[in-house]
Amino acid sequence: MEYHVGTLNHSEKKAKVHAEGFKLVEEALENITQDQYIFQEEFGSWMVEAVPSKPYTLYDVNGPISALSSLINRRKLIHDEIWSKDFFLCSLTSFPNLGEGDYFFSTNEGLYDVKELETHNIYSKSEYILDELTNPHPRFSTMMSSVRDRRGKKVDIRVPLYQDVNTGVGKIDGLKTPGEIHMDSQHFGMGCSCLQITSETQNMEHAKYLHDSYISLGPIFGALSASAPIYKGQLADWDFRWNVIRDSVDSRTDEEKNPESENYMPKSRYSNMNHYLSDHPNFAGDKINDGVKLKINEEWYQKLKDADMSDRLAYHYASLFTHDSLVIFKDRLENDPHSTEHFENLNSTNWNSVRFKPPPSYDSKIGWRVEFRTLDVQITDYENAAYFALINLLTRVINDFEINLSLPISLNDINIARAHQRDAVTEQKFWFRRYIVDINSEYTQNMASLNSWKISCEDFKSGEFTDSDFVEMTLVGILIGSQEIGNVGLITLIKEYMDFNKYSEKDQEYYNTMFDFLVKRATGEIKTGARFMRDIVINHDAYEQDSMVTQEV
Asked: In sequence order, what DSSP letters do the residues of 463-480 get, joined into one string?
């Protein structure tokens, strides 16, 4: 969970980020004795990431229940300490006026006197936001500088501007990028807060299977969690943060973005996952892996193959090795064959919608993990806990039931584009597999799990499919099923899973209350965070129907 530290001045009607927010949190922690949570730096100097010191147990029925109290307590722990100093901790996805006007508070008075930002900012060259709002750890400023140096210019982030009665081309960026919100620094992307959920698996094959099962869920749950409608003091025509971060760390040159170039790289290093890793029939083969072909490092692809790595996994890592490292410390230039540091350096700066995470070191007690990355963080702890419960219970279904969530990568790329659209949760349809379980089979037993996830069991079915196996569905239809299509919904399967595993009536009631909340969000009965904030802006007395989100608003 990532948070913003800010300040509210009610007399001046201003909301600002605290330029030394993480430092303020560190000072607050000096007055607190606790070992339940780890508070660590994030990209923005005003941000803090908070994680439990010990992971939840996946199959602990009370795991998601304890997650809610954990979320409440970790926020309260810091908030109670800093509130008396007129500061607050919030879990907005994007801080609304970041980079526009009087947007920050700082104890360094000299920052208020900086006028020529592009000249002043040696790392980002941004004309909107100060480099000093980067966390002081050198890896963040180095990463920002490396992206700009590699691409030969600063980043260029553009978001469609919401068109209201008096919007026109836009009052802030209209002359530069008519009809768009323009941003030019990693702060705008990496300064977004997210809810990311990592699951540890039994072994590498299991990790590949879970990774692949998550891929089609990324855009859909991104739309369901959409909570980012405002950037740089302007109302966007998007609801979801993903592409803002994508463009904020895009290190490709103009040549590498050109489809006609032999050096063409079709996707940013932060992107929707482009291929499946598993050799399971559900995910193997060129037909299901029909996305744009990534440029790969042929030399490393062959080396990995020669070392008996599977085709799919070798392709994945060879595609990562076409990117340059963004941060290398000068005392770590030599490769240590007993360390995974250089590999992790590259693996951790390629941010896909689902991340495949090997053990962090040779002697680590941490195993193979998979990270689900698309969720926008929610305003309240209950909302965040509800999404955590959804991913947690669905992961159990994926592990234990014979469920097929594969989707052609090309259709998944269409879904991620649709997920950004305003009110996508109710207004868009998403491609999904028509039948994710075979209701005429014993689908309550996953055959792969019986064989330690090795792809050699004779009971596996063929991965062949026809185009009619996939259909455009509403999000609510994906969650609870559609009579018209005849599919079984994801939440329907979760409820069957809880019955099958004899969850107590009390536990089922707790989870079903959360799932009912998410279904109501999918129907529009309960607003997404994006629609909730959008309506506040549009209905505010100070809003002039010009798409401008002023300090007062």
From this structure: ----GGGEEEE-HHHHHH
